[in-house]
Design brief:
Layout lengths: L6 E3 L9 H9 L4 E4 L5 H11 L5 E6 L10 H5 L2 H19 L6 H4 L7 H8 L4 E5 L5 H8 L4 E6 L2 H10 L3 E5 L5 E2 L14 H9 L6 E4 L5 H9 L4 E4 L13 H9 L5 E4 L7 E4 L14 H16 L21 H8 L3
Parallel strand pairs: 1-9, 2-3, 3-4, 4-5, 5-6, 6-8, 8-9
Antiparallel strand pairs: 7-11, 10-11
Helix pairs in contact: 1-2, 2-6, 4-12, 8-9
Length: 341
């Protein structure tokens, strides 16, 4: 795959990667992205149709455990229900404070597929698809290649990069520890790589010969120039777009990004069961099990109610390490500024 523009919009599921943001980014010649996680296949297909004429836009999909070749099924199932039950008990004071009911453990685990098969059927119509949260089998890459789809995989280590290339990936998104939101560690029980982005890019460059995009803490033209000097074909930006006019970031998230001047972010599993980076709040004091998407299902009522109540203590406030440099304004202006390196 050829990257004709130095900037890629990182897919941010859950709202920030709105259709409006994808259109604005694509209009500059950069690669826009839609976040397909936690949406139905029909909704993702409809969203793509609404932005397809804007320019280059990709669709990012979450890989469920059942399709993830990096999952040790027996290990991932060990004590799963008991861990979730204990975590649910820890969540009850937050739920009571916000006046919401939590799903039972059984309800939280009722549907863990994220409409995967239907999304794959729709994906043959999309020219660019990327996968996060794991590595599907080689047969899926072949299936998408038969429809002339370019397929990318988010990786967090050189070993993941090599495996993804071997499976048939056309490009990689190399995500460093500085990234906000979720880390795409392929093994959901795995410990995230701690190499800083520049070192990680060098490590990946040494083991693959396909294009890769750098992601994590990229906030300025100088950051873009640096990652390209380490072999990246383009720079993926997420936190840098959270305060743009077109982003679907909720009002509480925007307020906290503008007013929390501590500069401190931390990694946690509490919001979904997958490791993510956020501004620090009270909910992050809990110790969540590495069980996705059930932890996400348990916390959704709390997170949504906290956003509605403007309560920053109890919802995700995803942010990369460079969030203090996030700018307001139009996405077009910010993309053009970032590309000016």
């Amino acid at each position: 795959m050829e990257f004709r523009h130095p900037i890629v919009a990182a897919p941010m599921a859950g709202g920030p990667s709105s259709n409006e943001l994808a259109r604005a980014v694509a209009s500059t010649g950069a690669l826009g992205f839609l976040g397909g996680g936690n949406k139905t296949a029909a909704r993702v297909a409809e969203d793509y149709r609404s932005v397809a004429a804007s320019g280059d836009v990709g669709v990012n999909l979450f890989v469920p455990d059942a399709a993830n070749t990096a999952v040790d099924v027996a290990k991932s199932q060990q004590g799963r229900a008991e861990k979730l039950a204990a975590f649910r008990e820890e969540l009850l004071p937050f739920a009571q404070r916000l006046g919401v009911e939590l799903p039972t453990v059984e309800q939280a685990g009722a549907d863990v597929s994220d409409d995967w098969e239907a999304k794959l059927e729709a994906a043959v119509e999309w020219p660019i698809v990327s996968f996060t949260f794991g590595l599907p089998g080689p047969e899926l890459f072949q299936r998408l290649h038969e429809s002339n789809t370019d397929v990318g995989v988010t990786v967090t280590s050189a070993a993941e990069a090599r495996n993804a290339a071997d499976h048939g990936a056309d490009f990689l998104v190399v995500q460093g520890p500085e990234a906000g939101g979720h880390r795409s560690v392929h093994d959901p029980l795995g410990v995230p790589e701690t190499l800083e982005l520049a070192e990680l890019l060098d490590a990946v460059h040494a083991v693959v010969d396909i294009p890769f995009v750098a992601a994590g803490g990229i906030m300025t033209p100088e950051d873009v120039h640096k990652v390209r000097a380490h072999g990246a074909s383009a720079a993926a930006v997420g936190t840098a777009l959270l305060l743009t006019d077109e982003a679907g970031s909720n009002a509480l998230h925007r307020y906290m990004l503008r007013t929390d001047r501590s500069g401190i972010t931390q990694l946690t599993r509490v919001f979904s069961g997958r490791v993510s980076r956020s501004l620090v709040n009270e909910l992050m004091s809990l110790d969540a099990p590495a069980v996705y998407p059930e932890v996400n299902a348990l916390t959704v009522p709390i997170k949504r109610a906290a956003i509605e109540a403007r309560d920053p203590r109890s919802t995700h406030l995803f942010a990369g390490t460079g969030y203090l440099q996030a700018r307001t304004g139009s996405a077009v202006e910010i993309i053009e500024w970032l590309a000016s390196s």
